[in-house]
Structure formats: structure tokens, C-alpha cells
Amino acid sequence: MPPPRTGRGLLWLGLVLSSVCVALGSETQANSTTDALNVLLIIVDDLRPSLGCYGDKLVRSPNIDQLASHSLLFQNAFAQQAVCAPSRVSFLTGRRPDTTRLYDFNSYWRVHAGNFSTIPQYFKENGYVTMSVGKVFHPGISSNHTDDSPYSWSFPPYHPSSEKYENTKTCRGPDGELHANLLCPVDVLDVPEGTLPDKQSTEQAIRLLEKMKTSASPFFLAVGYHKPHIPFRYPKEFQKLYPLENITLAPDPEVPDGLPPVAYNPWMDIRQREDVQALNISVPYGPIPVDFQRKIRQSYFASVSYLDTQVGRLLSALDDLQLANSTIIAFTSDHGFLMRTNT
């Protein structure tokens, strides 16, 4: 069976991805050599539907909204599991976690469940050059420490060199010292290597698009962005888009009565951040101070806007290279993010 070339094929791709926003590239200008459409898959980490295209009046996401405006927009899509690795393996294989037998980060489905084909593998086996940039599969054992290479990719995946600093002391606090904080607006010129992972991923993806413009083969390019996953490490200028006085609190802050302890996530990864530790919040149900709640939400929204600019750069490059009309664009998040006031 050849790679999908028709409208039905485009819809199939979007449905398999359970995508948030899916853009269907025009089919009027196909690849001149193979008559097959390229595919650009954009995967975002922990993005809830806090976007203008979903009616959010506060969040500024003009580039994603523009993509959605001429796309098939899913209003009733769900993550198979609200954990990165199981969700990604699920939509990249088109199988439920009950089939992949991955519910956490601790196994490789090809070994423990079955030698399932992935979406990029399918394209690769049908004549496409398949490329991975950033966080596509979850790193670690869940992708065999190789991002499922060589099965899914034509050559080794790219990871930005600056991602190793994501959880280190790069956040300058009010005391002037560097901390490993949850809230981390930065001056990009001051951080290690003078850049951030998502900026590097965009630059690499654009370089690959430039190379593929003259390729005789169609391409499948997956670009995985880190933000708005914690820590909220983003260029500080985006914080100005969201004055604290405009930030509302979560409408449902309280732990439900009778909630079984097993159903509650104490967010230990957040509690380990230095700025959160300084709050001395009791475990597991201690409420976050109201002023810090607003700052969390502010930084999440700022991270979304920063992400949006990277998506805009990528899509502009696709257009500038005259590849937009021969490329299917799919945009999805692996799952959302819970911004309740308790941790």
C-alpha cells in the first residue's frame, strides 16, 4: 500500500495522531519527482488547549491560531494517557497503552509488547526520508535510548545540545544567584550556549527543510518542542505579555471530597524545584500560595507564547522554501497540563 496521497489519507493521518490542530496542505502542488506529499509533524510537550483557536481569550498564540484557521481542528480529541512516554508511543504506533504495555517510562514496546510499526517507519518503508528533531519519542528506555532508531528514522535523530541545562541552575532569582527553579524566565544571552532547546530545534528543522527542498524523495519531518513542559524556562520578554493582575486563578482549586489517595498526583517533580521548596508546602495536599499560583499560570502562558513563535518561524521557513503547498502539516500535543492550585 503506497503512502497516503488523497484527502482520505490526510484525514487518516490526523485521526491517528489524535491531534489538537491539524493543517491539511494543499494537494494541488505535489512533489515534482514522486508526486507524493511531504509531511511535517509538530509535537508539543504538555500543551493544554490554552490557545486562541480553542477560544482562550488570554493566551497569545497567533501562529498556531493561523495554522488552525485553515485546518481541520479537532474539538473532541483525548490523550491516551496523561504521561509523556505512553502517550507518544500510543499515537506514534496507533495503538492503545494496553497494547503497547507502556504505562510509564520503564520499558521498550518492541521488546515487551510487540514489534509494532510506527508512523515514521511506515513512511520510511514507502520511500520517504524520515527525520526526527527534538523530543519526538520520549528519550530513555521507552524508545530504547535511540528514539526508536533505526526503525523509524533514516538517520540518527537530532537533540539540541542545550537541553542538558533544562533542570540545572540557570534561573537567576531575586537574590541574584542561579537556581534550579520551576519559574525560569531568562535572558537568553546569559544562559549556557546562549540559546534554548526549542530555538535550536527550530534552526535544525529549517536546515533540514533547506536540504530536502532539492531532494528527489519526499520527506517526513517530526519536530518535537519541549515547552510548555516544566520547568518554565523561556525568554523573559514573554512574561510581559501576561501581567499578573490579568491572571485568573483556577476555577476548581480544591481536592475533591473522598478522593482516593491513589488518584492524587502530589507533583513531586515540581516540589523538587528550588523556588517551590522555599514555599514549604505540606505533602501531599498543601495549597500553593495564591500569589505563586498566579506566577505559575503566568509562566505557563508565557511558555506557550514562546513556543508559538518557534512554530511561526518553522512554518514561515516552509513557506519561504516553497514547500508549504506540497506538505501535510500536523500539530499535536502529547497531553495537557493540570494547573490546579494544589500540588
UniProtKB/TrEMBL annotation:
Keywords: Calcium, Hydrolase, Metal-binding, Signal. One of its GO terms (molecular function) is iduronate-2-sulfatase activity. Residues 1-25 form the signal peptide. SUPFAM superfamilies: Alkaline phosphatase-like (SSF53649). Residues 38-337 form the Sulfatase N-terminal domain. It holds the Pfam family Sulfatase. Coiled coil: none annotated. One of its GO terms (cellular component) is cytoplasm. Its cofactor is Ca(2+). It comes from the Eukaryota. This is Iduronate 2-sulfatase. The lineage of its organism: Eukaryota, Metazoa, Chordata, Craniata, Vertebrata.
